[in-house]
Design goal:
This protein is an alpha+beta fold. It is built from ten helices and ten strands. Strands 1, 2, 3, 4, 5 and 6 form a six-stranded mixed β-sheet that branches. It binds L-homoserine.
Length: 295
């Protein structure tokens, strides 16, 4: 038996919602998985990262499938796999490529053994593997997601915003590991920055669920992670400004970066201008980037 699953790329944080907010977008990775009783792996792939992703025991799709098999007590029964990946989510750029691999591996293995786990359990497994839930949650549930972690247990709800948006993503030509982008963060933050972010994150969710465009503009600011990560992405704040000037409601770092994502209301038809402005602003800082326009 072989299953095929498709998992969306994601943008975590959405500005103020560090480790708590995320959204799914229309760029997808496909996975075909067959489990074998004999040990041994055959891993092939096309597309993004095809030359960088390990094709042995370190492969994250296989590790995630194994994790699920262990949880189901089936890891002695299935000891190998045939895996084929078609990747379109840029690798190590802040669009959740590792989350897609984890969710794909878990979901496909789950389906192959008769779906013993529900989506909440898959979310918990995926969070345990990834370390934070804000990419895996929208990859599993779709839409915008809000999650809260209590003593390691993750809860999540997903919703669709009241207005249609385009996400204009500037993808720089350099990768940035999440580990590195988390290393530059402080372990403690000033109370005033925490209050700033609580207001912004709440405003963002309220604006999206009520369909309030003015508050969407306000809801994308952040004081908890972007200021510290700016040093890793030359021109970040200039690109944000350029995107706003060209008609975006706002722009944020996508996940841990280096992708920058602009939120553009569909009825403004500004996505082309926004993409151009973001590229130009990046170019002034000697950063080569490409644009993905997503829903
Ligand atoms: N919330 C995580 C971070 C997302 O910003 O480090 C990483 O993709």
């Amino acid at each position: 038996k072989c299953v095929r699953v498709r998992v969306p790329g994601t943008s975590a944080n959405c500005g103020p919602g560090f480790d708590c907010l995320g959204l799914a977008c229309t760029v997808y990775n496909d996975l075909e998985l067959r489990l074998t009783r004999e040990p041994g792996l055959s891993i092939t792939m096309t597309g993004e990262g095809a030359t960088n992703i390990p094709c042995d025991n370190r492969n994250i799709v296989w590790r995630s499938a194994q994790y699920l098999l262990e949880k189901a007590g089936k890891d002695k029964e299935y000891r190998g796999a045939v895996i084929h990946m078609e990747n379109r989510v840029p690798l190590s750029r802040g669009l959740g490529s590792s989350a897609t691999a984890i969710v794909a591996g878990l979901t496909a293995a789950n389906a192959l053994i008769g779906n013993p786990f529900n989506r909440r359990e898959i979310l918990q497994f995926a969070t345990n593997i990834e370390g934070h839930p804000d990419n895996v949650a929208p990859a599993i549930f779709g839409g915008f997601t809000v999650n809260a972690v209590t003593n390691g247990r993750v809860d999540c709800f997903s919703f669709l915003p009241r207005f249609r948006m385009k996400f204009v993503v500037a993808v720089p030509n350099f990768p940035l590991s999440t580990r590195m982008a988390r290393k530059v963060l402080p372990t403690e933050v000033p109370m005033k920055d925490a209050i700033f972010n609580i207001g912004r994150a709440s405003m963002l969710v309220a604006a999206l669920t009520r369909g309030n465009e003015r508050y969407l503009r306000l809801g994308l600011d952040d004081a908890l992670h972007q200021p510290y990560r700016a040093e890793l992405i030359p021109g970040m704040y200039d690109v944000f400004k350029a995107a706003r000037r060209a008609g975006a409601a706002g722009a944020t770092l996508s996940g841990a970066g280096p992708c920058l994502i602009a939120y553009v209301l569909e009825r403004r038809h500004a996505e082309e201008a926004v993409g151009k402005a973001m590229l130009e602003a990046f170019r002034k800082h000697d950063v080569d980037a490409r644009i993905l326009t997503l829903d």
